[in-house]
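**Sequence, C-alpha cells**
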Amino acid sequence: MSNRLALEDSPYLQQHRENPLEWYPWCDEAFERARSEHKAIFISIGYSSCHWCQVMEHEVFENVEIATFVNQHFICIKVDREERPDIDKHYQELHMLLNRRSGGWPLSIFCTPENKPFYAATYIPPFNRDRMMGFSELTAIIAQKVAENDEKLFQNAHEISEYLRPKNESVQATVLNEKILTQFTIQAEHNYDEINGGFSKSPKFPHASTLTTLMRIQQLHHDEQIKHMITYTLDSMALGGLYDHVDGGFCRYSTDASWLVPHFEKMTYDNALLCELYAQAGVVYHEGRYLQIAKETADFMIQFMMEDDLFYSASDADSEGEEGKYFIYTYDEIITALKTLSLPNVHEAAKIIGATREGNFEGHTIVRLSSAERPEWFELFCRALSVLRQDRVYPFIDRKVITAWNAMMIKALFVLGKSDQNYLHQAVKSLEKLKATMLVNEQLKHSTLIHKAPKIDAFLEDYAYLCHTLIEAYQSTFDEHYLIDAQRFANKALELFYEEGKWYFSRGAFTTVSELDDGTYPSAMGVMVNVLQSLGLLIDPKYSRFAFKSLEYTSIKLMKTPIYYPTLTLEAIRHIREQRVIKNNSANLASIIQPFSYPFLLLKNDETLNEFTVCGENSCYATTKEITHLDELITSTL
C-alpha cells in the first residue's frame, strides 16, 4: 500500500512511496499530528541520485520490522533537498552545530513533538554496527524518552532551537586590497595535487569555481605556475573516469585521487559549470581540446538530460542495482570494439585507453586515456562503445527542473555559443522556455516537473543564477529585453533577500542566511554580487554600491581565507581592479570575436556610437575604430 508520498511530484519522494514507513511530505498535517499524539518527529532529507540515500532506504526504510515500530512511535517526514533547499540548509546547519562537522545526505533529524530538533546524523545503519548506533536501537531510545517526557531531552531541544534562531550580529569589516590575489594563489598552491591535478586527495571534486578564479588571476598576472595548475587539472579531469568519453559529460566526483573511479551520478550543475569552464579555458588558452570537451558536455546534456528545451536535475550512479554498471566494459568488449577499427595491434591500443584483462575497476574497464591527446581512432572507438550501451539499462533520471541549475546550463551554452552558433540558438530557446515555465503571475518559482505547474517560490540562488544568465544572454545577443529582465529580477532579489550587506537564502518556512563559501556549486551570494557589479556598469552605479556593501560584509573572511570563497574572492578582485565596458552599436560589437586579455570586461550596445568607446563606471576614457587596438586601449585605462 502506498504512503502519503504517492501524490507528490518529486521523483525522490516518489521513490519512497512504497516504503512500509508511513511517510508524510513536508506539511502542516504532519506536525499537527505529532503534537496532538505526542510523537517524536523523524525528518529524512536526500535526493534521487544519492547513493547512500538509496542504501539507507533499502536497509532501513524498507525493513518491515523497523517500520512497524517507527510508525507506532514517530511521525516521519521525507524531504527532497533539491526541491526544498531552504529546509535542507536549515538542518545542515543543525548537523554542524551538534556534530562539529559538515553533514551530507541522507540527512537524518529527530525532533520533539513540537518540532524542536535534538539529534542529527547522516546515514544510520539498521542495527548497531562498527561502533555506529543503529536506527532500530536509536528510535527505541528516543521513543521511550519522548513518552516519558525526559526533561533533559526537551530542555536540550529548546536550547538548540533558540540557538538556531536568526540573529542580528554586528559585523566588522576590513579593507579589500591586492593581498587577496596573493593569498588566494598561495592557498590554492598549498591544496594543489601536483601528481594528479586538482585541490584535494580523495574523494576529489572538480572545484570549478576555484579554477575559474585562478584563471582570471592568471590573466592579470601572466603567472606560468598558475597556468600549469589550471591546464594540468583540466587535462587530468578530462582523461576519463570523472569524464565520460562515450556519452560525454562529467560525473559528480572521483572516489580516488587520480580522477579514475567516479561516483557515477551526473548532476546538471556540475556539467553546466565544467562546460562553461572548459569553453572559457579553450578561448583564453587557445586550446581546441578544451572546447571539444565543452561541446561534448553540452551535447550530453542536450541529448540525455533535456526535454522541451529544459534540463533535468540529475542521473543516478546505479543501474540494475549496481553502481556504474551502465558505464563500464569487460576487456573482451573493449577488444571487440577495437577490432572494428582495423588497428595493427588492438591489445596495444587497449593499453592506451586503460584496458587490461585485470581491469581498472572491479575487474572491468573505465575508459581512460593515457595522455591529453586523443588517438586518431578514438572517436570511432567511442561510437562502438556507445552502441553497446544502447542495450543497457540507463540510470534513473530525476526529471525535476530547477531554475538555478537550468540557468547555469543555459549560461554555459551562451558562453559556448561564442565559439559555435548552434549552442547559442539552443541557449536562446532554453532561456525563453525557462522564463515561460518558471515565472507564474510575476512570481519566480524554484522547481517543477516538465509540463507541470511549479509550486515552490524561488530562493536567492534562482534569482542570482537567472540574472547571471540573462546578463550573459545580453552579452551574446545585445537584446535589451535580457538586460531589462536581469534588472527586474535583481531588484526583486534585493527586496526579498538583502539586508545591509547580508544576504538570505530564504525567508519562507525557514529564514536561512546565504552561504558565503562555494559548496556543491558557487554561492548564491557570490553570483548575486557578480550580477550587481555587472548591472552597476551596464545600467546604474547604485547596483555597484549594493555589491560593495556585500563584499564589505564578508571582507574579513575573504582577506583571511579567500580559498574558501572563490566566487566572492573573484568579485572582490573585480572590485579592486575595476571593470571596463566597451560601448558601440550592436553590429560593431557583434564583430568582436577575439578574446581580450583583461578579464573584467563587458559589452554595451549604444546605437548612437560608431566607434568603440572604453568606459568605466562613471566616465569614458578613449575611443577607436580598430578592434585590434582595443586590448592596448583597455590596458592604458587601468
Notes: DSSP finds 25 helices and 25 strands in the chain. The chain has four domains: 4-164, 179-318+398-577, 327-391, 580-636. Residues 421-438 form the longest helix (18 residues). The mean pLDDT is 95.
